[in-house]
Amino acid sequence: MRPPGELELMLGTLDILVLRTLTWGPRHGYAIAAILRDSAAGSFRVLDGALYTSLHRMEARGLLDSEWGVSPRGKRAKFYRITAAGRSHLKNETERWNAYVAAVARAMTAVLKPA
Amino acid sequence: MPDSWRALRFWRRDIDRDIDEELRFHMESRVEALVTAGLSPESAARQALEEFGDLAETRARLRHTDRQRDARLARHLWMSAVLQDVRFALRALRRRPGVTAVVTTTMAIGIGAAVSMFGVMRNLLLAPPPHVVAPERVARLYATYQPTGADPGGTSDRWSYPDLENFDAALTTVSPIGGYTDGNVVVGSGPSARQVRAGIVTGAFWSTLGTRPLHGRFFTAKEAHPVSGARLVVVGHAFWLRQFNGDPAVVGRPLTVKGLPYEIVGVAPHGFRGVGFGDMEIWLPAYVLDDGEAEPRRRHRSGSGYASLVGRLQANASTAQANDELTRIFNAALEDRYGRRPGRDYPRDVRVEAGSIRGAVDASRHWTPEARVSLWLFGVGLTLLSVASINVASLLLLRSIGRRTEIAVRTALGQSRGRLGAQLLVEGLVLSLLGGVGALAMVSLVGGWVQRLLLPALAWEGAMSVDLPMAAATAVAVLGTSLVAGLAPLSATRLDPIAALREGAIRPSTRRSILHSSLLVSQVALSVVLLVGAGLFLTSLRAVRDQDLGIDTERVLAVRLDMTGTGYSSAEVNAIYERGLDQVRALPSIQSAALAVSVPFRNARAAGFYLPGRDSMVMNPDGSAPFGNYVTPDYFATTGTRLVAGRAFREDERTRTDVVIVNETMARRYWPGQNALGQCVQREPAAACGTVVGVAEDTRLFSVAGEPARMFFFRPLDRADADERALLVRVDPRRSAQAQADLRRSLMALQSGTHYIEIRSLQATIDPQYRPWRLGATVFSAFAALSLVLAVVGLFGSVAFAVSQRSREIGVRLAVGARPRDVVWMVVADGLKIGSAGVAIGLGTAVLVGGPMRDLLFQVSPRDPIVLATASVTMLAVVFAASLVPALRACRLNPIASLRTD
């Protein structure tokens, strides 16, 4: 079903992306979904259900806080906000991610020597 | 329960609604966006759903996550509320260190009492003996005989060695099966020889229990055989520590037992006491019984039951199956043994049962008196705990009344009753916990000592350690106590804050609440119950001690010369005793001395006799044969047994067989209304007459209580009689301190080879029999005293508090001319009202619960009016004294000052 060229997100990566979207301020689930859709631009795909699962899970872990508010278009919506614990989690995970990516990139570009 | 917790439940109901709303908002927004981008509403909806994934599954997952989160949150909030309460309670306790100390001590005493009595009861009634593997599969065997003819039947756990062999060979449901008994044996030689308590066992005893030796090994079946066994000994743990400083190399060393060379093969583990309760110092094979005896008693013969049997139930066998098989085998053996001799009467339809090895049970499978008393003692401990917690409850109640203003302010500020209640409960719990810790410390420090004091001669090693059941019992006590202590002040939270604030400021409430009154009354009532119990046991103890046993037990010493293994013939032994008799008579500390075959309270032998004109043996009404003793002329002067008619034997009658002294029961029974002197008694039908020359008062044979009057007669002890004998001496009370040393010195010089001289007062022999009453009297008295103190302190506190609350009223009264006497009476009457209500209820309770105590008491009814009256008067007197102090203080109030205090 998946169009060619679309990637499956690695486990835990979604959490980092979601936390990132919240660093600029509280947002409701739909807004986060929209940002992810735009930033992915067809290169990977996130099911909205997985997004909500991630949000609730992170809320339970204390990385996020939620509050009911009114959306810009006047409807009741649940807004998520990143907590201090969430920020430090994001920082750690980002560093880990960067290190991982750099390591893999180094490995991939290394000249293969015959044994 | 804190209210914050209750609020959380509403959140939980919101979870589903919240998820639905959140997801609906998402769907609507997405569809709207897609429609704006140009899709038809239908395809927009389809695409939104596709982008979402499995809606139902997501919803379930979200619900699960949210629920977990809420639960965690709720726990967290609850914990912090409790923590806050604990902090608050601790702060409150620190602020009043005096009250805290009193309350904690009271709780510690109550909990400590209940827990240590639980420990006593557990050891005597419930706990399996230590070092027994899977004790529920190990059984002690009992035979129940049907009553036949004169034989009343009954249950017994005494078996012969052939019984054991028989069972061992045929049983399939029980295996292995071991036998045990105990006895006193002399260990060591020369001046260091002493008598110790020994467990005497067969080889399979150890494997049946599954016990492992600490060092070395135990005996094998072959080594323990009563006839062909070996001279081996296993030393008990305490003996090993004491004699050998706990040296493991003791295995293989020699130990003199009964004057014979035995070899130590092993050390029993710490606290091991077989399946009994006696403190066994060493363990010996059954072989020891006849080893070195000049005339072996042929222990291996059938019909001579001396050992108890223990067997291990096979894994696939039920107790019922085992009982059936045991019964079948035993009856078949009886049939086989006696059935071949026609005309001989032997027991039939004997029921053999495998009973539990838990608890202190006597040979007839009844709880020992100590065990039964221990149940009451547990009740006493619980009663004291109740008094203690009621005391604490009323103390906290008083304080909460004192804190009315604070509580009213907090209620007015919006703190809910639930929150307040939780706080008071937590305060009670904290106090009880402190008390529980104090109690455990107390029990582990002095519990063992108390038990040894209460129940000497029982093995208590490690029995009072604080283990899991003890800790659990303490926890239960702590919880119960904290409920009582915390719930009572709860009533103080039910008040109208406005009224309380107004009232409290001007005129504090003067009336005691019904709850508080009933707490005080029940405290007094429970104390009265304990006082009655103490009175009953003390009266029993006095009655059982004061009774005339017919023998001056306190002044008589029984002396035995142990000559096993010396090789002396019985004639030589007899000659030594005769010389000893002459020698000790000359000692200044000895007033009189005699020889006798039987020592009162230690042994007695049945001796049949016949009367002219009757061809059957004379029997006691209970079916037992009469007992007889062979004595030298000074026997009666020595024991203090009075001769109610006739005379004692004369020195020149020692070889005569034709003179007899009978006891009163026998004289009354056969020659009622006649003179027994000069009557004829025969050893065999139609044998020569023995003429009655004296009638002695009745004496007890074995027991100080519960023994029927039995027929008894005395004959002169011939120097040549082969029987074992003992030397009885009457000590000069002014020189009793040196009597034992004198005896030892005199008798040691008598004959070389006498390796041990056993000297024991008859009083020491019967002393253990007083134990149940002494135990009951001690614990009841101690706990009644404690309870009395607690009740009085509680009452005093309450009356004094009432006086302080009414000081204004009293001041007015005094100012308008009331006489001090009236004020005193008013306050004392306040205390006496509670006291008399408590006494009335307490007496009623004591009469109700006393009934089952009847068989533990001695010659006193559980409703003994003197005991009941003494308990009531004591209680009322103490209540009076406790109320008099605040009353006198009240009448000395300065009216002006007390009016100014408000």
Mind explaining what this structure looks like?
The complex is a heterodimer of chains A (115) and B (902). By secondary structure, chain A is of the alpha+beta class. Chain A has one domain (13-105): Arc Repressor Mutant, subunit A (Orthogonal Bundle). Chain A is 53% helix and 14% strand. Chain A is built from 4 helices and 3 strands, in the order H-E-H-H-E-E-H. A 3-stranded antiparallel sheet of chain A has the order 1-3-2. In chain A, a hairpin with a 5-residue loop joins strand 2 and strand 3 (76-82). Chain B has 902 residues and is α+β, with helices and mostly antiparallel strands. Chain B folds into 4 domains: 3-92, no CATH class; 135-356, no CATH class; 370-545 and 770-900, no CATH class; 564-754, no CATH class. Helices cover 51% and strands 14% of the residues of chain B. In chain B, the strands form 3 sheets. In chain B, strands 1, 2, 3, 4, 5, 6, 7, 8, 9, 10 and 11 form an 11-stranded mixed sheet that branches. In chain B, strands 14, 15, 16, 17, 18, 19 and 20 form a 7-stranded mixed sheet that branches. In chain B, strands 13-21-12-22 form a 4-stranded antiparallel sheet. Chain B is globular, with a radius of gyration of 38 Å. The interface between A and B is medium-sized, with 20 and 24 residues.
Question: Biggest sheet of chain B, open or closed, and with what strands and sense?
Answer: 11 strands, mixed
What oligomeric arrangement do these chains adopt?
heterodimer
Secondary-structure class of chain B: alpha+beta
Question: Tally of extended strands of chain A?
Answer: 3
Helix content of chain B: 40-55%
Quote the beta fraction of chain A.
Answer: 5-15%
The third-level CATH topology of chain A is: Arc Repressor Mutant, subunit A
Measure the end-to-end span of chain A: 42 Å
Classified in CATH, the superfamily of chain A is Winged helix-like DNA-binding domain superfamily/Winged helix DNA-binding domain
Alpha-carbon distance between the two ends of chain B: 37 Å
What's the overall average pLDDT of chain A, rounded?
Answer: 84
Order of helices and strands of chain A: HEHHEEH
Largest interface, with Cβ-Cβ < 8 Å?
A-B, 20 and 24 residues
Estimate the global geometry of chain B from the Cα principal axes. Answer: globular
